[in-house]
Amino acid sequence: MRYTYDWTATGISGQMAATGDSLKRAIEYQRTGRNAEAAALYRRILRTDPDNALVLFNLGVVSQMSGNMDLAASNIERAIELVPAEPQFRLKMAEILKASGRGDEAISHLENALTKHPGMVALHAALGEAHSDAGRFDEALACFRQTCRLEPENPENHILVGGLFKSFEKPAEAVSEIQKAIELSPDNALAHHVLGQVLLAQGEFAGGWREFEWRLRGPLREWSENLNALAPRWDGSSLDGKTVLVAWEQGLGDTIQFIRYLPALAAEGARVIVLAQGAVAELVSTAPGIESVIVHGDPIPPVDCHVTLLSLPYLLSDRIDLDIPCNTPYVKADDDVVAHWRQRLESVFGLKVGIAWQGNPDNPADARRSVPLSQFFALARVPGVQLVSLQAFHGVEQLEGLPDDVKIMDFGDDLVCNQGLRYPAGLVAAVDLVISIDSVMVHLAGAMAKPVWVSLMANPCWRWQLGRNDSPWYPNMRLFRERNRGDWDHVFDEIAVALAAF
């Protein structure tokens, strides 16, 4: 978020000057992350100057950063009423509306701003993103093409076009457009990173993993630099007799998915120490090839080098026979926990199916990958099937008020127990089949060699590749793909038919 704007609309620059040092101090609080102090000072200014659009806007931004989207929207809406021609106000309003699931309103604000500022690239880009989120490919492409016409030498605009083609599973067009960005800016980390994702989605592993390494100079740059301060990054040289720190990156599912490569490090003669998120540390410790596991935040002992988990496929590519080792199971649940859940389920007859319908809402893709629990109701009505909730935290409120003919076993707090994935892993081991959205649960089931079916949104993550209904990562996995964005009915119709025949 930028804190200094080119306030082109009449009155904005004057309002900034009128508030003097108070506004400057509030902006400095905001810039340094002291949001509560910034908000308090903005509110104090508004008590004497209630129609200061700039202060209202900044208070809206602080509210957004604090997670209060309703307050953010109301403040910025008031700023727009005062200065309707200011494009930055409408840009921010559109961002907040999109995050709140109000995409059509966001589009309306952006189109309004473009009538007054048709040459503003940021507005065309934001409008294209809003159309893309709504599944409107042609409209999004027109917007992104316009950014290229306005600024043809800006690689970011070609990345927008390439990213759109990627999002709508048009890999050849995506590669062509992203290569234009790389020609303009050979060291553009984002372009290389996106190119890596496109190649991996097509199963082009050699080039894909190489390009994917650019994430360490882009979205993971800070994390990579922090690790570099601990020890040199492993460059693929001999590890015989050396201690290597293998550090987590990204989500819990990524950790589970990529620890499969650790035995290859141990086979090189390395002493492998894993830095893992607390929620998966115990589970990770059951994987082969590991000497010890450190929970993120705990002291790290001296090591000879480090490597991030998702770099292992690239660095080990000339050492392993397969692009993707599939020796499942490679993690296991605690025997006592499994026995606990089997006892809880011993009165259940028929097929016991664990289900999960919502991921972490902080994930930008969650609104598209998660589904309402009601999509699973048809599965609950399949004769001989008993659904068992694997859901913890987010989404559990949907278990209240189920229809009389929908029975879902819910173990509530017994499943959470503040012990990470310890109890969910045990429950996964105790059921017969897992059916879930694309979340950590599918990686957990897959790594444990449990049969698992995944409801995949259109254009899912690169790891699930394009068009296939199986997964090279987990031989026990079946993929059910969404054909059109937001149309989950046919996905769960297919799952219900498959479940009846299972």
CATH architectural category of the largest domain = Alpha Horseshoe
Coarse structural class: alpha/beta
Report the average pLDDT across residues. 92
Distance between the termini: 50 Å
Strand content: 5-15%
Helix proportion range: 40-55%
Tell me, briefly, the overall form. globular
Order the strands across the largest sheet as they lie in space: 7-6-5-8-9-10
Please tell me the total number of domains: 3
Count of runs of 4 or more consecutive helical residues: 24
Radius of gyration: 25 Å
Poorly predicted regions are 1-11
CATH homology-level superfamily of the largest domain: Tetratricopeptide repeat domain
Number of distinct beta strands: 10
CATH topology of the largest domain: Serine Threonine Protein Phosphatase 5, Tetratricopeptide repeat
Biggest β-sheet, characterized? 6 strands, parallel
| CATH C-level category of the largest domain | Mainly Alpha
Task: Describe the overall structure.
This protein is 49% helix and 9% strand. By secondary structure, the chain is an alpha/beta fold. It has 3 domains: 12-188, Tetratricopeptide repeat domain (Serine Threonine Protein Phosphatase 5, Tetratricopeptide repeat, Alpha Horseshoe); 238-315, 3-Layer(aba) Sandwich (Rossmann fold), CATH 3.40.50.720; 335-500, Rossmann fold (3-Layer(aba) Sandwich), CATH 3.40.50. The strands form 2 sheets. A 6-stranded parallel beta sheet has the order 7-6-5-8-9-10, sandwiched between helices. The longest helix has 20 residues, at 12-31. It starts with 11 loop residues before the first helix and ends with a helix. The model is unreliable at 1-11 (pLDDT under 50).
